[in-house]
Protein 1
Amino acid sequence: MHQLRFISSRLFLITTLAFLLMSCQKGELNLGDHVINSSTYTTLIDTVYIQLSTIKEDSISTLATSNAIVGYFRHPLLSGQEAKSYFSMGYPQNFSWDNEKQTFDSLVVVLKPNGYSIGDTTVDVRIQMHTLEEVLETNDDSKLYNTSSFKYSDTSIASATFRPYPNENEELTMRIDDAFALEIINFLNEYENHVDKTSLFKDEYKGFVFSCDTSITRSVLGYSVSDSSAYIRLYSHFSGLEKEEHITDFSLASSVHFNQLQSHNKSIRYNQIADGKSMVKSQQTSNKVLLQSGSGLKFRVDFPTMQNLVEFETKGHIVKAELQLKPDMTIMNRTDLPSNIYIGDIYRANDIWGYLTDSDSNPLSSSLYIDQLYHEKTYYSFDLTNYINSRLIETVIDTDRGLVITLPDTEMGSTFNWLAINGYGRTTRSSKLLLYYYYYDTE
């Protein structure tokens, strides 16, 4: 609905401008009941047609993130999603072994939770550790992606079943198979003085992948990746008058690490987006578009009737343009809402040119307004005043140019955070562009 504060008697011109805006949709402009003769007025117009479409990055670099994620959960729109985390293992610089006095006790892997979780953490998860059959090597561009994969053994060498309790941050410790542990000890002893012992160790012990049992697991958990939070520890002791404990650590964090992220159900329309040049309009997905960090999902905002707005520049000026993006709170919880989303320029074939910036040249982030009671008025807001006005002075309006909405780069490839946004429509829950237009009478 149009809400007007105006002082003017030129209703014909107002109706004409409103008709230009609504040329691609049905609707009428309600001017209100009170008219006062004057030369200026300001009006709010909220019926500018906007097209929202989901797009997808070809791949996301997940190499050397500080967050290892492992698990499986069922997303309300994307269905089953799984995360695996791959590590290579560093050579232990302080290794020594005395065959006569030293006794093996155990070999364990330690992962410390960082508090991240998504899915149902009220049921048990089962995490498994497998040995890799291929050396972890980066691509020609020195990266590994959410779609990268390496062969690994079907048989696990360690596993644990537990209730997550993500807020307690209790470290995950899994005992590794003793036969595998003794094999490592024997290898290190044999090549202890070899000039290429580090390379030989890497070729022999290529690394590990942490996966889950998808038959019982219903959540994805995050673990910190640092020398003090992700490691393999060898426990042994020396026999003598007193038992002397000895510890040797193998680093997981200082070696190669990446996350592999998968969506299992390919019948889902969002999961069928073939490449970075493809897009799915909101009309094809129940009038919703989707962001998700792990899958690389983003969405476009296009303005098919932008050319019609040029008429405004001849009789006035847009003093404020606000884009309101409304989450679908029928499927999202308030705690799922990202605190920030970002907006950028996008062109043909979904070529992203960069973020829009504020007056201090910082990436333009959203403001989040939460309706605590009914959620109908929960929305993200972007101030697009400068953007819209700059588009209106283009010599030729480029209809292939639009906006892209994305989650923060820091979340890409290391979380499954998401946001479902309602498309354009005529309900209180629909996303919309609000234009505050200042008209001046020149006649």
Note: The first helix runs from residue 11 to 21.
Protein 2
Amino acid sequence: MIYVQLAVAPVVVILAYIYYRDKYNREPFWLLFLLFVSGMFSVLPVLGTGYISDYFVEQFEGLYQVAYTAFVQAAFIEEFWKLLFTFLIVWWAKSFDERFDGIVYAVTVSMGFAVVENILYVTGYGFSTGLLRMVTAVPAHAIFGISMGYYLGRAKFDSPKAIYLILAFVVPWLMHGIYDFLIMAGVTWMVLAFFCFLILMYIYAFIRLKRLSKYKIKPQEVSVAQNTTTETYLEYNINTNAPDRGFETNASPQNNSFENVGGNQYQNPVQEPQNQSQSGQYVQSLPNFNQMQNNSTNQYQAQDRGFENTQSVAYQPVKNNLETLAVLHYVMGGLKMLSSLFVLIYVLMGAGMLTGGIYDGDTELQILGGVFLFFGLLGFVIVIAFGIMSILTGRFLTQKKHRMFCLIISALECFNAPLGTLLGVFTIVEIEKPEIKKLFGD
């Protein structure tokens, strides 16, 4: 189990980072889950196509054979199927409404493929392989996804669409091919070049992320002056809806004097006019306020400056990480569902031993098979139940309700070291904050 968690850990971190970068108008979870699962299942056509391509390997020798393996069997086939799955699922989706979404979608599919590939490598070659792939292969798949998603997002909203769609395949294919060729060649200088190329890919990925971030759509601003029309002149506010169009001064009396305003000198401009008509004439007689005398500029700061006609302020909700934690709980629940398949191995073993014992008349084998079968089914049910509860926790965090349920499941999650421990601790710390409790209604 520790190998599976080691294989999954970098995938979870990368997905969380990409989701965090998508700050505005985030994608629906069901679509991201579908993309991730499709990326996992893309391994099947990749293996099938790779099996067919094996017939052509013997046509090449030496570095040509390595190049064929790297650029065709690995890079071309994998990137083709990942792009095809991504395109078919999201191209016509309504939620695909900004360029950065292309990166989110492509990386999610790439991470679905990478998690299956990484589990196979780590369980087959051990802990050290998992540590090495944590900083090489898995981030590389994410970078290929970033380059694919960058051009896919440009193809969705920019022209020429055909060119950008071609680049969405060609660029990650070439990057993937060079990456594999340098590591497969077995030449010393190529190994050194591989690490240099890896660093360049990291830099390239951050540049692409930053490039598309400027196109992100921010939420609509909420006007707070819909029913009040107010004109602001320096420190003085004129409410044009008021019956007398009187001045509202925010300054101290020392600042209420003007010099050379329209060729005249005024004292105490906040004096109440006699009637509405006089008020209108009085306001119109002040054509210029730019020469107002202010003797206490450094000592005075207005408290109520009023609102201009077009003034609006963005709604700022309480800052929290509930959505990010919810996604991580969704991912954790999905991983538990996936790990339940491994528990079924004990069920199959127990059923086989039980059947064999009955057939051969071996009582001890029957008992052992029954034990395997019983505990295998029990473990399967428990893992599935915890997976469902993790998914429910993610849903409740998004909806900001049932805080106590989230607290209990997060506490139980702490026993699932190491990823569950980190997720449980961070969730407990977050939902125990006073301002977060208010969001839950506690």
Note: DSSP finds 15 helices and five strands in the chain.
Protein 3
Amino acid sequence: MKPSLANIVTSAARGAFVAWLLLAGVAYSAHNKVTAAKSETETKAEHVEFNHNGHQQAADGRIVVEAANGGILLETSDGVLWTIERGDIVSRKKLAEPFKPLPPKELSERLISEMPAEFRTYTTPHYVVVYNTSRTYAQWTSSLLERLYKAFTNYWEGQGLELREPEFALPVFLFANRQQYDQASREDLPGGTGSIIGFYSLRSNRINMFDLTGVEAVRGSGSRGSIKEINQMLSQLAAVPLVATVVHEATHQIAFNCGLQQRFADIPLWQCEGMAVYFEAPDLASTRGWRGIGRVNYPRLETFRNNLPNWQPGSMETLVRDSRRLRDPRTAADAYADAWALNYYLIKYQPKAYTEYLKALASKQPLIDDAPEARLAEFRAHFGDLNKVEQEFLKQMARVK
């Protein structure tokens, strides 16, 4: 039986490794014909009425994918993707006007209308931050994200990639405490956020997080009345992994909005996650962005090195061919270290091939699944024989200090 559009996306949203749940396993059967939408300038908006979670609702947007079985992937003007089965569609009607993403001011108004009265918005060149914590913390977060955006895009453009400005302003929701954040995240994480301090949703294109200065590990380290004081609090050792997680998720959001990756496309998880780890380490003392892009991630390196005695020939193949090791909570920590190490090695030692590989991934269309053998063939086409790459990878990574 061929999988349904909704079941595939729902299964990803409930995946075991929920910190990155919407980045895993979202693919439509390659045996089902899908039709991608035309460019924005050619696409007419559609009005769709459909059933969702037992309620009928309506939305205007563009059809990104139309499956042979009648299901659709609809993108609304605020950047949200709706997966709608044929049986849930009540009506469809083409509109006269073309699809247009909401400008930042209108997106800000749309987002704030969804939230309780105490929420406010703070807008920067690329972000719309919706918050009910302090305005200073919203400013600190948006400054961090703008620095990351500049560092990320400058880095890859310097490697020869052509990136584009995001169609949509990038939405970020900042909650005053973990409880509010957990409650607001149930659409994406039905089982609750658990220990996850922030995540990027492929479905909504939004980042959800909460005020890190309220975390027990950093709360007693001083006041947070100014951006300087927030920097001091979040620069201490206990806060480093918290900030790294925010940066990791923000890296995903940028990559999926600047043309480097396509939402709901079958991007190999080892590459997607390993590249995000590559950008994790900000320098909070610098106002100019990331000074250490690509520097060694020592916690990941330590995990990788500790596991080397158990490395088996062909371990790289299992990492590349599918995402099971990364999605299984029993093996995820080790697999993420392996994914970081492989991305680090390829970026450092095969930079041209890695850039061409990114270009190939950028061309992938939503909801089209790659078979494991196709993934391996694509890897070989860019980097060469897996056995030789694995040998050189292990040799070079053993020398990293």
Note: The mean pLDDT is 87.
Protein 4
Amino acid sequence: MTYRIQHLWSSLFVLTAVFALGGCGGSDPATTPGPPAQVDYTPASPRLVKQPLMDDLRVLSAPDMEGRKVGSAGNAKARALIVARFQQVELSSYGGSFEQPVIWRDSPCTNVIGYLPGSTNPGRTILFTAHYDHIGTRNGQVCPGADDNASGTASLLQLAAWLKAHPPAHTVVFCLFDGEESGLYGSQAFVAAPPSALPLASIDVVLNLDMIAQGTRGRIFVGGTSYTSVLKPHLLAAFAASKVQAIPDFETYDHASDQYPFMQKGIPFLFFCVGDDDPYYHTPQDTFESIPQGFYWATLEAILDTFLRLDVLAQLPLILPHAPSQSLRTEQRILNPHPWRHRMIMAEE
């Protein structure tokens, strides 16, 4: 997950607010106790099998992936795994290849995109998105990125397999973006030049999964519902039977992940993220072993339930009722919150 702010003054304002509120979670996760140890998040009626999800998470966050930094050998290894799984599931591809090389700000990266044609509403599209890149190493130590964002990547692999066996009504596209940590490079390039067979006007909603596993406080934040309120009842209904708490209307970090370029085009979205509840953000401690597996599994089950409730609707919202008027600027900055809230890195175009 990357944190982008439009201008220096807005960056400083947000930085001050983050200090005051303790970040996305409203308190410092390093000093906030987690949920009681006896909480069992096991879904009551799971659709997804837990072990394959955990196996994918373990492999994607393994040391030999080298933190999956864009352009690295570990990043290419993760991409090859994703492509192999898309082939195994027999997803369809755009232009004859799942790999979609792009260049954004003179930086090459490679998105991996596959889709399932809709069974009854093929002309309308729901996008599942996640980024598979991470930051590589820090101070000579590998940052495995289990939560950020092997969790979202492994989730999309399991969702693709399940939906292949349970055909969706809408066309469902699985976008694994590269270069998110560099500044949303893969998703920005996608929105600027989507596949010709996938015009942006055909996309009803984007479901972005970025950091959904490290549930130290038993909750998942959801952005997008303040812009498109009709999505909220379906979200809350899906999480009603789950022990994971969904916090809707949380728009603080909407600019911080791959839904943002779509948001700029007025496309509705739901952004799922544990935010500052992850105390291991961008550290070597973001490992497979640190992940609360029951929480992760339950969260993905509720996200799948959210999708299914949207998929059966004959008509989804076609545009954000209050589409933001701002656009991405030449001069942008990346803000890294806890535990490096003071760090600001220039991203030059």
Note: DSSP finds nine helices and 13 strands in the chain.
